[in-house]
């Protein structure tokens, strides 16, 4: 595959909706699958396995192997220690089968929690001490963008809120123009919208944006409506690559709510030029721009605890990192050669098109010998979060099915151990919910067969287990706040007192919402496995803030609340002490409807912001690109200061 040495064909017309075609292909080989892997293991497979990564190893790969071995050791020690304590606490005389079930469920759950805990611990160290092995934005310093290194900025859209999409895209393009490097980029709006009225709105907005950018010397903006949409976003991106991918060396993928600064975009290209074996470089998008209490808590958690987990994740992964599907740059030639996605054979829900394509594309491009990096210190990458809990769960339903589908590809030959683990953690992000629920339900039943005197005969062990579990879950939040204070960044969050108060608010809200997420994720996993179709009475998560109505909340959570109330009654009948211990789980579920409405209320969110709680740095000092995007979208951010 060769790149067009000249952009002349792209720049041939100033009025065409799309540039001239330069067709290429994205071959998609059939997946091997679990059955073929089993045949290979038994020596019964005759299917040839191609050679994958034949590149010599780099120093970071040996470092990553040692670090991952340390992680496995720490997780194993944590599981062994807590399991031994649980063995002392469980009553094996009343109903031993229930005790055995509790133990079997407990081990994978504590392994899952401990992986996050140790990642947070390493993230804390990295945030204070740094890590010389990670990819850093500093590597872009002094790098020039060659004239033939052309990049496409692509934004796949489908039935989106057009004013919000255009506002972010316009701000991004204007920021890119301000760098003086806009000539290296073309911009594509890739629409899968089927509604003619919405298409007309998109086209009119594109024409206005293109005229304004042409007048200012900005990047070229093209617009394409796919006539035969298929395979969702992955198919949209693949269609772009087949038509115009050979015109460009790189592509930057945006979501409909993405905003990126010009410095971030040019920095990504420079990092690619400085690292020719990099296939994907992923930025860390900073959530911001929403008003409700739910959204503000998610934004705050992402900046405080999320930054810690990202640093820790990068500590273990290095060049075997994630790709999150947007706000990232991709080497197009490598992507077209190695990231074709075949259908998953079979029938039922766990077959068909690959949905969570980003994890698979990262695994495939790494298998081919290219590296996948997350660059956490490159600023200027932003996104939005869902406005309320119902919208969040609507999004999670799609992600859950996609991640469950990916479980079928864990055994594909040639994948790195890190990416196999990544696919597994994607499954556990949702499959852990039914495990937790089963553990709690088994515990509820076990109370009916337990002599409470026997349970209280080992109070030290029981209390120690509870406290240790609480530390595993809550210490990352404490470390996140501590890291901010030790780095002297607390003023960006409203000062030390407001930072601590905000962390407490977010922690309480997280504890209240955790059982609701557990119930919802459990239903998503069951639906994915059984093929049962769930109907959620909510639209796709909107890009613009809107209050959650009582009717929508009731439609979304009434069934869960009813089941939780029955669970509480069962616990009370089983043993009054069980009802007390389990109240933090079923009580928030019973109150899920008012909780969702309250946290999705715009007025409460404005009140919290007015008190400078749950602040993120972009509100304390707003980057110009965000100020422009919010102004164009008529969002209520006029009172925020403008960054220098």
From TrEMBL:
<keyword id="KW-0328">Glycosyltransferase</keyword>
<protein>
    <recommendedName>
        <fullName>Glucans biosynthesis glucosyltransferase H</fullName>
    </recommendedName>
</protein>
<dbReference type="Pfam" id="PF13632">
    <property type="entry name" value="Glyco_trans_2_3"/>
</dbReference>
<feature type="region of interest" description="Disordered">
    <location>
        <begin position="1"/>
        <end position="24"/>
    </location>
</feature>
<comment type="pathway">
    <text>Glycan metabolism; osmoregulated periplasmic glucan (OPG) biosynthesis.</text>
</comment>
<keyword id="KW-0997">Cell inner membrane</keyword>
<feature type="transmembrane region" description="Helical">
    <location>
        <begin position="465"/>
        <end position="486"/>
    </location>
</feature>
<keyword id="KW-0472">Membrane</keyword>
<keyword id="KW-0808">Transferase</keyword>
<keyword id="KW-1003">Cell membrane</keyword>
<feature type="transmembrane region" description="Helical">
    <location>
        <begin position="70"/>
        <end position="90"/>
    </location>
</feature>
<comment type="similarity">
    <text>Belongs to the glycosyltransferase 2 family. OpgH subfamily.</text>
</comment>
<dbReference type="InterPro" id="IPR050321">
    <property type="entry name" value="Glycosyltr_2/OpgH_subfam"/>
</dbReference>
<dbReference type="GO" id="GO:0016758">
    <property type="term" value="F:hexosyltransferase activity"/>
</dbReference>
<feature type="domain" description="Glycosyltransferase 2-like">
    <location>
        <begin position="252"/>
        <end position="475"/>
    </location>
</feature>
<feature type="transmembrane region" description="Helical">
    <location>
        <begin position="493"/>
        <end position="512"/>
    </location>
</feature>
<keyword id="KW-1133">Transmembrane helix</keyword>
<feature type="transmembrane region" description="Helical">
    <location>
        <begin position="102"/>
        <end position="128"/>
    </location>
</feature>
<feature type="transmembrane region" description="Helical">
    <location>
        <begin position="427"/>
        <end position="450"/>
    </location>
</feature>
<keyword id="KW-0812">Transmembrane</keyword>
<dbReference type="InterPro" id="IPR029044">
    <property type="entry name" value="Nucleotide-diphossugar_trans"/>
</dbReference>
<dbReference type="InterPro" id="IPR001173">
    <property type="entry name" value="Glyco_trans_2-like"/>
</dbReference>
<dbReference type="GO" id="GO:0005886">
    <property type="term" value="C:plasma membrane"/>
</dbReference>
<feature type="transmembrane region" description="Helical">
    <location>
        <begin position="581"/>
        <end position="602"/>
    </location>
</feature>
């Amino acid at each position: 595959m060769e790149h067009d040495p000249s952009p002349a064909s792209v720049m041939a017309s100033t009025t065409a909706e799309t540039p001239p075609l330069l067709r290429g292909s994205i071959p998609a080989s059939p997946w091997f699958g679990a059955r073929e892997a089993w045949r290979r293991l038994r020596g019964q497979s005759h299917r040839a396995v191609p050679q994958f990564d034949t590149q010599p190893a780099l120093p970071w790969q040996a470092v990553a192997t040692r670090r991952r071995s340390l992680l496995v050791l720490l997780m194993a020690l944590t599981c062994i220690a807590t399991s031994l304590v649980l063995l002392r606490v469980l009553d094996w005389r009343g109903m031993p089968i229930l005790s055995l079930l509790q133990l079997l469920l407990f081990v994978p759950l504590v392994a899952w929690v401990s992986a996050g805990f140790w990642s947070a611990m390493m993230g804390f160290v990295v945030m204070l001490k740094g890590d010389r092995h990670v990819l850093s934005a500093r590597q872009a310093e002094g790098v020039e963008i060659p004239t033939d290194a052309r990049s496409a900025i692509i934004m796949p859209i489908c039935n989106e809120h057009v004013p919000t999409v255009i506002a972010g895209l316009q701000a991004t393009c204007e920021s890119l123009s301000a760098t003086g490097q806009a000539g290296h980029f073309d911009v594509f709006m890739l629409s899968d919208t089927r509604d003619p009225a919405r298409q007309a709105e998109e086209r009119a907005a594109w024409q206005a944006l293109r005229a304004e950018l042409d007048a200012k010397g900005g990047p070229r903006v093209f617009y394409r409506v796919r006539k035969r949409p298929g395979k969702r976003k992955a198919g949209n991106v693949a269609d772009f690559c087949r038509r115009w991918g050979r015109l460009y060396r790189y592509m930057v993928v945006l979501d409909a709510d993405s905003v990126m600064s010009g410095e971030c975009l040019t920095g990504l290209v420079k990092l690619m030029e400085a690292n020719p074996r990099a296939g994907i470089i992923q930025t860390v998008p900073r959530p911001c721009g929403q008003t409700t209490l739910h959204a503000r808590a998610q934004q705050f958690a992402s900046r405080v605890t999320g930054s810690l987990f990202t640093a820790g994740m990068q500590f273990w992964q290095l060049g075997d990192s994630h790709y999150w599907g947007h706000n990232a740059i991709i080497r197009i030639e490598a992507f077209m050669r190695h990231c074709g996605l075949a259908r998953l054979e079979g029938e039922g829900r766990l077959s068909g098109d690959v949905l969570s394509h980003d994890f698979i594309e990262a695994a495939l491009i790494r298998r081919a010998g290219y590296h996948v990096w997350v660059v956490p210190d490159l600023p200027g990458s932003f996104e939005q979060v869902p406005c309320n809990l119902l919208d969040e769960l609507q999004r999670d339903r799609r992600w859950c099915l996609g991640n469950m589908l990916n479980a079928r590809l864990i055994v594909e030959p040639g994948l790195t151990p890190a990416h196999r683990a990544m696919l597994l953690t994607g499954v556990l992000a949702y499959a852990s919910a039914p495990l937790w629920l089963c553990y709690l339900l088994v515990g509820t039943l076990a109370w009916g067969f337990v002599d409470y005197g026997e349970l209280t005969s080992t109070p030290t062990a029981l209390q120690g287990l509870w406290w240790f579990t609480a530390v595993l879950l809550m210490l990352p939040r404490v470390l996140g706040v501590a890291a901010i204070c030790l780095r002297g960044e607390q003023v960006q969050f409203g000062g030390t007192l407001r930072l601590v108060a905000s962390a407490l608010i977010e922690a309480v809200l997280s504890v209240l919402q955790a059982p609701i997420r557990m119930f919802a994720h459990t239903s998503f996993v069951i639906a994915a496995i059984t093929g049962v179709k769930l109907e959620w009475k909510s639209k796709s998560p909107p890009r613009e803030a809107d209050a959650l109505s009582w009717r929508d909340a009731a439609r979304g959570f009434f069934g869960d609340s009813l089941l939780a109330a029955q669970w509480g009654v069962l616990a009370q009948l089983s043993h009054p002490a069980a009802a007390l211990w389990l109240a933090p789980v079923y009580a928030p579920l019973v109150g899920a409807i008012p909780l969702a409405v309250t946290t999705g209320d715009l007025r409460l969110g404005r009140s919290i912001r007015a008190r400078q709680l749950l602040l993120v740095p972009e509100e304390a000092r707003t980057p110009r690109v965000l100020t422009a995007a919010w102004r164009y979208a008529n969002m209520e951010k006029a009172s925020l200061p403008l960054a220098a």
